[in-house]
Amino acid sequence: MKIIDRFEVPYYQYLNEESQLTDDAPQQVAKDSNTLLNLYRTMVLVRTMDTKAVALQRTGKLGTYPSTRGQEAVFVGVGNALAKEDIFVPYYRDMGTLLQRGVKLSQILQYWGGDERGNCYNSEDFPYSVPIGSQSLHAAGAAYAVKFRKENRAVLSMFGEGATSQGDVYEAMNVAGIWKLPIVFVVCNNQWAISVSRQAQTAAHSIAQKAIAAGFSGEQIDGNDIIAVQHRTVEALHAAREKGEPRLLEMVCYRQHDHTTADDASRYEPKNMREQEWKKEPIARLRRYLEQSGLWSEKEEEILQAECAVKVDEAVKEYLSVEPQPLESMFDYLYASLPDIYKTQRDMLKDVEIVAHG
Amino acid sequence: MAEITLVEAVNQALAYEMEANPDVIVMGEDIAKNGGVFRATVGLLDKFGAERVLDTPLAESMIAGLAVGMAARGLKPVAEFQFMGFIYPAMDEIINHASRMRNRTRGRLTCPVVFRTPYGAGIHAPEHHSESTEAYFAHTPGLRVVVPSSPSRAYGLLLASIRDPDPVIFLEPSRLYRYAKQEVKNDGKALPLDVCFTLRSGDDVTLVTWGAMVKETLAAAQSLEAAGISAEVIDVATIKPLDMDTILASVEKTGRCVVIHEAPLTCGVGAEILAQIVEKALFSLKAPPERVTGFDTIVPYARLEKYYIPSEKRIIDAVNRLMEFA
Predict the structure, then answer these.
(1) Residues A206 and A270 in one domain
(2) CB atoms B102 and A119 under 8 Å
(3) Cα(B81)–Cα(B76) distance, rounded to whole angstroms?
(4) Which domain holds residue A344?
(5) Could you tell me if residue A2 is inside a domain?
């Protein structure tokens, strides 16, 4: 017998639970106060917006909504790392990334409020993908198009750890490895796929190691440490653009909310687990570091909180004031031009009474 | 001008459009070096190179998902599934994404992809190689479903499908791949989508069919003519969206209709056609319309498949039943 292969999965943490920089934290990161402040401000905005979205749902003003609470570092860090010309292929919890991609807060509400126009981003990014993991394949296809046209951009696809049980995700990684596609796969491992825990999802020690089977490297990152999230994503995007090297980044964090507003995690989540994990949460962690470094104060925090509240209120106002689409719109984007046979059905809508369905 | 088979016409259309449009990418399992298991893509690799003729890993959902991503980025993928029985892992990508991309982004992104697959029984193939499940796709808003039944229609309809701005399921009747040769001008002229082709005009009965069953239906019409019954034969060609205008005009003329398809009876596309005839042309009917179809059973393995495929005799018997009504 001989060993034909061995592999390693690195773990990255630059800002630890005590808000101290770790020994391997890159020097330039800690010194880049502009980026750190920007990341902090964006995370606070995302949490304010998230809290508001849940409240809107509870008061009947928004549909089912998947909270991003506690996972802000993952989405905000990734959004910050992406270059404008990169292509983002989201799943559905990615508000923190989308709002750095030119998507308005009101559009995010519009989508969860049941209006297709919430997908009309002013960018080349893909729309939300609700069928779990299916979008990773679109990302691979888009990355092939980028490579085919010899463009200097990368594609980044996101999904939860549950999605890594889907064949689609492995199929996307497999082809990315073979064709050397300029793509980064980011897993937001928030420990829960609705009620199924990370341990019940796979016997693999890490999600990151799944990249090894596809022929490229995977790494695990402290997803509560936005400095590591942002920096490692920048590195991965660079490798994708410059070397056509795919990479898998597993961001380890914790879902500090039910799966969506339609879920009740008390049915399955062990007691005290959320509280336990809250000690690691990303916003307080970075704030302490900023305060220790003299970059942040109580006063600045008050101003920021007030600014975020105003932005969110404006977004809610804008969302609530959007006129619904005309009924015929349900036919108007089915095909480039509607085949004659469906025109009769479209015309029927002119006589459809608007009724409340309760 | 050379006479070519249906599968050669598919190849000719692919080569023509790859030459004309540098965004066309042909992809699938065994389609590059091997030229496809039916040789539909033979020669394309040498002519257009490995960047445009892609041998993919063996995963159908992946093929469809990659095509969705490529198409949304402005490429024009023509993806092959080796047999229709293997398309099902790709249903999620086709139904949840390809058919909806335009609608759910309100036209911001689109999905101009062609999904090609051989389909139907009658080639003595192994299990899972003989299905006709076009109705699954015809039921899905946002898709087009196109079925050629001759070399010239394969050429013209495939060109039209590749040029169409929306996703097309292009079903190639494998039983007809090498059945007959026909002169096909390689002039890049597309045939229209969304319309039926009237292959034969007649006054007594309308026979509506598509794909491989066009063969038995035309043979039946020939035999009926000898018996003094004049049958009009309509090749539906685009199953979704259906050109009911052509079918209804014919039924209003003849007063009798038989729909023939290889797929099982229940919820087959024939059910939709007959429902619309009853809704819109009931009072033109001289006899209750009939369906001659594959049975509501699993396509049998090779030894029994010829008894599953509707025969010329079953079509003639149906027409004779209709003619007995005064």
Answers:
(1) yes
(2) no
(3) 16
(4) 326-358
(5) no
